[in-house]
Amino acid sequence: MAKVKIAATADVSADKVLKTSANGQSLIVAKVGDKYCAIANKCPHFGLPLAKGKFENGVITCPFHGSKFEVCTGKSTEWVDSFVGIPMPDFAKKAIAMGKAPTDVKSFTVSQEGSDLFVEV
Ligand code: FES
């Protein structure tokens, strides 16, 4: 495991996520309350990027099929809810889920040294 700088605190605001990387792995970083959090920028549904999703109250919504994840834990709070922002009926949700069960996103513990943020990867 290596400690890798992912951002400066000034780069991370409370109202949006910051796309960054650590050792070639794409991450998103967010500030939730006083805490800095990071998860993989990879939706566990189809492996598509989360960074352009809506971010609100510590939760990011996948821009493709609406799955929601807590950015401080990676926990899945909703699974395949829509198609590019358009709500779907339950039968369509099941079809688009393609049998994949709700899965959490990999999360990373963020440490702060002065004005820099780090993760262990
Ligand atoms: S790729 Fe994210 S919910 Fe489908």
TrEMBL record:
The keyword Protein biosynthesis does not apply. Its cofactor is [2Fe-2S] cluster. One of its GO terms (molecular function) is 2 iron, 2 sulfur cluster binding. It holds the Pfam family Rieske. It comes from the Bacteria. The keyword Iron-sulfur applies. Residues 4-119 form the Rieske domain. Keywords: 2Fe-2S, Iron, Iron-sulfur, Metal-binding. Belongs to the bacterial ring-hydroxylating dioxygenase ferredoxin component family. This is Rieske (2Fe-2S) protein.
